[in-house]
Every structure is written in C-alpha cells, then in structure tokens.
Amino acid sequence: MDLQHYRAPAFTDGNGLLRLIGEAVDLLPALPPPDPDDRYHARSLTSVWLAGLSQTSRRGYYQALGSWLAWCAEHGVDPLAARKADTDAWKTGMTATRRDEQGRQVAVAPSRATTAKRLAVVSSWYRYLIANEVDVRNPAAATERPRVSRESTTTSLTVEEMVGFLDWLLARARRLGTETAWRDAALLTVLFSIGLRVTAGATARVEDLRHTAGYTVLRYRRKSRGDADDFGRKPLPPHVVEVITEYLRVRAEREGVAVSDLGGYLFVSTPHPHLPQYRGGQPLGQNDIDAKMRDLARQAGLTCWRTLSPHSARHTAGTAALAAGATLEQVRRMLDHATVTTTQRYLHDHDDLANSAVWHLSEAIARQRRR
Known about the structure:
- The chain has 15 helices and five strands.
- The chain is mostly helical.
C-alpha cells in the first residue's frame, strides 16, 4: 500500500485544529469506522493525541502512524489486536523514498534513524490508547529498534560555500528583479543566517518583523509540544534586513500598497503569469521550500545539491557559529535546542573533521613530496 497516500496535510494551529485533524484521521485505514457518539473511540483518541503535538511533529507522527496502519490493512491485521510479530514484520518490510541522480523519487530501505522513529511513534500511539483505558497491548514496545549513530547525516556547507550561495542568490535577484527571486533570496538568507527552522520561516508573518532596543528582530513560533503560543525572537543582521527590505518593496509594488500596509505571511507564493486562478499570497509549504532550495543550489553549482535540505541551513549555521567562536550555549539558544547535548553534535562534527589525524598525515605526505 502506498505510504505517500497518507502524507499529512498542512496542519496549522488555531481554531478548528481538532476538526481538521479529525478529518485527516478519518482517512487512515485499518481502524474501526468513526463513531461520533463515542468520545473514547480509537479515531477520536488519535485526533487528540496528534493535537497535543507541535505542528512539525504532527506531520511526521501522522505519516509514521499511517505507514503502520497501511501495513495492517494490506495484511489483514487488526491494529487494536496486533502483536509483536506484526510490528516485527512491518519493520522488516519498511521502505522509504529517496531521490535518485535524476531527481526521481525511488523506494529504498529506510535509514536506521527512520526505522527507529517510526517504531517510537507507533509505540507512543499505543501508550496513549492504553492510558485512556482502551483494551490494547503495545506490540511496538517489544520490537527491537535499531541503534542510531550520534553522528549527524545532515549535509552541511562550509562558510565559503554558504556565503557563495547567498551571494549568488542576491546577484540573481538583482539580475532578474522579480518578486519570486527576491523572496527566494530573502527566505534562504534568513534560514542560513539565523538558523531558523523551516516551519518557523514558513509561518512567519510580516507583522512578526519588529524593532526592539535598536535591533530588527523576527518573532517566530518555536517548536514546542502542545503550546501554540510559544514564541521566540531572533535579531536580524544588517545583510538579512537588506534583502528582506528589498523583497518587501518589490512585493508591495506588485500589490499596489505601501510597504507599511503589507500583511499576512512573510514569504508567500506569487501570481502565476498564465493561470489567473493562482493569485499568489499563499504561504510556502515545507516541501515547496525543500524543492526550491535544491533547485537553486543546483543552479548555483553546489555539488551537494541533491542532499541539501532546509535542515542543512540550520546545521550550517550551527557549525559556522561554533567555528567562529560562539559558545555552545549561544548556539543552543540560537537553534532553540532543548538541551546542549543536541548542540554538541554540531561541535563534534566540526571537531572530528577539522582536527582529524588525516590532516597530520596529509602534511607528512606533502613534506615528503617537497623533499
């Protein structure tokens, strides 16, 4: 059964959230039909379980649960009566999608981290049902999860590559002069320059740009669990303010209003030149930003463009800040990590590469060749 069929919709916090989640949960297979008169029905509890997650986690949890339930439907297994043998079989047959050298989506074996995450999600779902006194067992709890390396697998740019990419984006925007080009330059400059999560960038609004104590700051929604009002703020360096200012000027000109009268989402789609029904003004989705970043990186000549992602911008920002002398605590706060343990992975990546014995060996080889 095609896992992509159960890709999560663009869940957003706000009024009607539980209703939207309920509609998505109704699409999941294998569970008993919805029962509006049963407050503690499996589907109702699943909706509440998802609603308690952050917007970022909600999408991933929905898709992981959809993968398990799709397997159950395909193999005639009642998920509310499943056993360890079933989650073991699901684990063995898991697939994921990756892009091949032509950029096409192909099915491959999932990474150890993906497998472990899916099992953890399904186990969390069963624990929630059990906590609400639904008579089920937790088959995923006993299924062995693969050990995940602490080494980061996220593609990261060097400072030189990052600056070169941002300069290329700025030159492209100046050459084309279009709202789309300036928006792309502004968005990616923000992601690389302040380590903002892609969800925070996608949901930022024009009114979130503020001036405080002599600084231009961006107010953004943090990745938090069940708290829609958890906001943070980051200072915007002058080079970021400059590109955002020009983007908003071009956008205001297109909308026929003053910059001060702009509102809504900060980074939005633009009108289609040949399809009038696409009027623009819609927030960019995570998948849109992901695809846009890779396409622009390819055009800019980055050799790692196939594996680049919005998270690469955060990883690059963290490692570059550490290399420039920022403390772990400063980087932890910049990246909104809950603990410094997560941030240390960035330091380990940098130290393991920069201080490797490979460079001593390389110098020895070079000295011998000079002789």
